[in-house]
Design goal:
The strands form 3 sheets. A 7-stranded antiparallel beta sheet has the order 10-13-14-8-7-6-15. Strands 2-1-3-4-5 form a 5-stranded parallel beta sheet, sandwiched between helices. A 3-stranded antiparallel beta sheet has the order 9-11-12. By secondary structure, the chain is an alpha/beta fold. It has 2 domains: 130 residues, 3-Layer(aba) Sandwich (Rossmann fold); 112 residues, RNA polymerase II/Efflux pump adaptor protein, barrel-sandwich hybrid domain (OB fold (Dihydrolipoamide Acetyltransferase, E2P), Beta Barrel), CATH 2.40.50.100. 31% of the residues lie in helices and 27% in strands. It starts with a strand and ends in a 6-residue tail after the last strand. It is globular and about 50 Å long. Strand 6 and strand 7 form a beta hairpin.
């Protein structure tokens, strides 16, 4: 992967392009920047990128069309979507259509750096999966997929519907593998309603970064797994069973699951 350019930045605002480029330069990342999806496609046809950061609202062709181009062209470069028109629909659709992250504008340098670090780590995992012969630990398990009966929001979080109609939600192992070791997690209290595509927890990692967890479903919290707040390592050891976050009464389950992906469908 040494011959790859790190990041392609796609935005129609020069101030955003320059700001993201500058932040990337502080991380010693090599970047290209373009103002439109058409320009981005021309770049992608000539060069390889580890990660793409793309605005949704662009002239002529929007960022969702870039996701579609990558999908039909079988180009697996991870994409972080950004937008100044931050809505739950944009966030959820971005993840459903294949983006690996969503950043509402204005975002901070720390928020961008966390998303970039996760995106590049995800690209590395993807590369190792697709080229196992180049993996030093050939037989190592890079991440544990969520169980087939679960549904997931992008690669962030999972949901499992219980026999009584309530749901459990949690964090995918793949998402956890894109960050440093979990130092702590901050959860929301019982009886609060959380919304699909919005933050439902914050993770602090050993490198002092903070990572927002997006809820896969809307619902009222009826039980909180407080054990993981005092013993955060459970998240990494057993993210799909003991490491669940909340039990919810879902508010709009049948409508919202159309934006989720079956865990029987592998990410890579």
């Amino acid at each position: 992967m040494n011959n790859l350019i790190d990041i392609l930045i796609v935005d129609d605002e020069k101030v955003i392009l320059d700001s993201v480029e500058r932040i990337c330069s502080f991380e010693n990342l090599k970047t290209d920047k373009v103002y439109s999806v058409n320009e981005a496609i021309k770049k992608i046809q000539k060069k390889n990128y580890r990660l793409i950061i793309c605005d949704i609202m662009l002239p002529e062709i929007d960022g969702f069309e870039l996701l579609e181009y990558l999908r039909t062209s079988e180009i697996e470069t991870p994409v972080i979507m950004t937008t100044g028109y931050s809505t739950v629909e944009n966030a959820v659709q971005s993840l459903y259509k294949g983006a690996i992250d969503f950043l509402p504008k204005p975002f901070t340098a720390d928020e961008l750096c966390c998303a970039i670090h996760r995106g590049l780590k995800l690209a590395d995992i993807q590369y190792k999966l697709n080229h196992p012969e180049k993996n030093d630990n050939y037989d190592s398990v890079l991440y544990v997929p969520c169980p087939p009966k679960y549904l997931r929001l992008g690669y962030y979080s999972w949901v499992f519907k219980e026999f009584d109609g309530n749901v459990l939600i949690g964090i995918t192992d793949l998402f956890l593998k894109t960050m440093d070791s979990v130092k702590s997690i901050n959860l929301i209290t019982q009886n609060v309603e959380i919304v699909q595509g919005y933050s439902c927890a914050n993770i602090e990692t050993g490198d002092c970064e903070e990572h927002m967890v997006l809820s896969p479903i809307t619902g009222r919290i009826i039980e909180v797994n407080n054990k993981i707040e005092s013993e955060a390592s459970i998240l990494e050891k057993n993210p799909y069973f003991e490491g669940w976050l909340y039990r919810l009464i879902p508010s709009n389950y049948e409508q919202e699951i159309k934006y989720l992906t079956s865990c029987s469908t592998e990410m890579f």
